[in-house]
Design a protein that fits this description.
single chain, alpha+beta, Ribosomal Protein S5, domain 2, 2 domains, four-stranded mixed beta sheet, 4 helices
Amino acid sequence: MLSREDFCCTDVAALWGIVGATGNSIIDMPARRSLSFPKARRLTRESEFERVKQSGCAQRGKLLMLGLLAVENAGRSRAGFVTSRKIGGAVARNRVRRRLREIVRKHQHDLREDFWIVLIARPDAARASYRALEDEWLRLAKRASILAP
C-alpha cells in the first residue's frame, strides 16, 4: 500500500494519470460538441414558417405536429416552435415552448443536416410531462427520418 511519503505533491498528478497530453495538471477531455442552441439555429421569420407549411410535409402525433422541409445546402438543421392560445395562457405556452426548445437542443446533434423543422404544440401538450413530450418528439423524428443514423 502506498503512503504519503512514497510520493510528493507534484507526483500525485502523474501517479493518478491526471496530467493531460498538454502537460497541464487537468484531465484532457475529448472535444465536446456545443450544447448551445443559439437563435441562428432557430426559425424566427414568418416567411420561414410559411415556407415549411406550404412546401414541407407533416407528421402528426397526440401532443405535437412536426412540420419538415428539406432545404438544399442549409447546413445544420434549424427549428421553430409554435404554441397557440389553444394551449392556454402565456405561462402554459411559454412552459411548453421552453420544454420543446430544450428537447431539440438536447437532440440537435442527432439530427440530419439541411432540414427546417417546425414543432407545433397541440392543446394536450400543456398537460404533458417533459418525458412525454420528448418521447413524442423522438417518435415523430424517427418517423420523419430526420435522425442521423
